């Protein structure tokens, strides 16, 4: 799972706003909390963390009132990340720690893994790389226990980025190789790009400055699509930035694929989405276990339901 976590689309936002109005009218507090969390999530992904925080704060209050620890963990985790992104670093990290406590109190290992990975991503902002690496290690152990291969691959890659930022070159390479082995095992079409970026990191070279198109073009071409992914390197194009760029590119491609290019058959897509809609892990827009927007994830042939709910015989285009 290297990308369908984001789909900040206006139609989705409009649909969520309608759902929120309906939930408010019906007095459905849980639905309100779920929709507010999704709205906060897409606003964060759209680069509007200040407005996202308002939605997420309301969602967190509702989740707390309901006593739903798993929902509280999800909302607080997103609120924490969004606050960090908005510049409120220490309050955000406090929320991320509360999210982890809520996930543990709720006894949900998927929620705990997500909370650990989120906390790990934020801790370096206050100079606590040691604790961040410990959180990544715990998250990896949980992904293995849960057989969440996609989650494990992604956490390894983020750990590789952090190791590279710390100058721990051998550990960064080892973590990157672990991630790549899993991306390949999953049949992730982005695997060659991760390989290429790790090689560039290893050689100390850099890709053409700011050129995400150069990274995404081979995968899009193989899919018969035009290379229209936005050029947004999201950081320096050498050292750790080479590794970070691979993840940014993978997510950009997922957004592209999710914007209209069907990569599985209509029947497969229908069954997958129907399964998600009746699933207790579905927020109304996202899968809470992997954080993905299901309308994006369900289109991608290599994607899987983290708990195996999608029918296996429908994964081919
Ligand atoms: S069916 Fe699977 S992918 Fe869909 S919401 Fe449930 S757990 Fe997530």
UniProtKB/TrEMBL annotation:
InterPro entries listed in its UniProt record: Bac_ResReg_Asp_Phosphatase (IPR051476), TPR-like_helical_dom_sf (IPR011990)
Keyword check for Hydrolase: no
GO cellular component: cytoplasm
Keyword hit for Aminoacyl-tRNA synthetase: no
Keywords noted in UniProt: Cytoplasm, Repeat, TPR repeat
Record localization: Cytoplasm
Family, per entry: Belongs to the Rap family.
Protein's recorded name: TPR repeat protein
Species classification: Bacteria, Pseudomonadati, Planctomycetota, Planctomycetia, Gemmatales
């Amino acid at each position: 799972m290297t990308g369908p976590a984001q789909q900040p689309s206006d139609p989705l936002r409009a649909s969520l706003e309608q759902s929120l109005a309906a939930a408010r009218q019906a007095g459905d507090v849980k639905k309100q909390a779920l929709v507010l969390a999704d709205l906060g999530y897409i606003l964060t992904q759209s680069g509007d963390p200040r407005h996202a925080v308002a939605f997420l704060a309301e969602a967190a209050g509702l989740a707390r009132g309901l006593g739903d620890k798993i929902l509280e963990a999800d909302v607080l985790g997103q609120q924490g990340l969004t606050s960090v992104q908005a510049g409120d670093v220490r309050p955000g990290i406090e929320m991320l720690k509360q999210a982890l406590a809520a996930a543990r109190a709720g006894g949900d290992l998927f929620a705990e893994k997500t909370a650990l990975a989120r906390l790990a991503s934020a801790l370096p902002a206050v100079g606590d790389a040691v604790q961040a690496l410990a959180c990544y290690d715990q998250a990896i152990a949980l992904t293995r226990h849960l057989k969440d291969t996609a989650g494990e691959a992604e956490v390894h890659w983020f750990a590789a980025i952090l190791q590279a930022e710390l100058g721990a070159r051998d550990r960064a390479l080892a973590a990157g190789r672990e991630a790549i082995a899993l991306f390949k095992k999953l049949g992730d079409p982005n695997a060659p790009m991760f390989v290429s970026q790790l090689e560039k990191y290893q050689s100390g070279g850099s890709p053409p400055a700011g050129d995400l198109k150069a990274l995404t073009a081979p995968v899009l071409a193989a899919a018969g699509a035009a290379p229209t992914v936005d050029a947004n390197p999201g950081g320096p194009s050498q050292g750790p930035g080479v590794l970070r760029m691979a993840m940014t590119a993978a997510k950009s491609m997922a957004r592209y694929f999710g914007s209209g290019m069907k990569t599985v058959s209509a029947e497969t897509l229908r069954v997958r989405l129907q399964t998600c809609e009746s699933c207790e892990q579905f927020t109304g827009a996202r899968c809470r276990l992997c954080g993905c927007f299901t309308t994006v994830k369900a289109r991608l042939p290599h994607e899987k339901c983290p708990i195996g709910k999608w029918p296996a015989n429908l994964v081919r285009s």
